[in-house]
Amino acid sequence: xxxxxxxxxxxxxxxxxxxxxxxxxxxxxxxxxxxxxxxxxxxxxxxxxxxxxxxxxxxxxxxxxxxxxxxxxxxxxxxxxxxxxxxxxxxxxxxxxxxxxxxxxxxxxxxxxxxxxxxxxxxxxxxxxxxxxxxxxxxxxxxxxxxxxxxxxxxxxxxxxxxxxxxxxxxxxxxxxxxxxxxxxxxxxxxxxxxxx
Length: 197
Prior knowledge:
Blueprint lengths: L2 H13 L2 H7 L4 H15 L4 E4 L2 E4 L1 H29 L3 E7 L1 H18 L3 E7 L2 H9 L5 E2 L53
């Protein structure tokens, strides 16, 4: 029994005649008759009673009609699901980031990710930068967002900058550290007492 035979069977049942079914299916009446005969032979029962006005379903035909509709619906659902799978990623992605980044980025990231990839589950893991890097290299994470990647030189991981941030040295307007009004070189920071988070 093939899906094409079941489709033909249902169209004949709905049409009430082989000639109307042939028109709907862009086929010939003898071709449809042959398909139905093969199906009847396979099932060992008549599916239609022939009348002067066309055909009506036999008891076996009525039973097959119920199953045929269910089978064709299931086949259509399976086809749609498989096609959707090919068009849209599924599964789980785990991303790690320090808490300081997560407070700024995580909520918007999760919302945007769910909109873009509804079939993918996103798990966010927060931790200290060193821990996040360890999790990433141990494959506990798929991706990570970190401030710096000094330990990844020559590693098999790929790094892509996603944003740059301006940092400011803020102090008294009297300038006791004598940093001036322009940019401050990093080596000068070693001589300045700093309060850091």
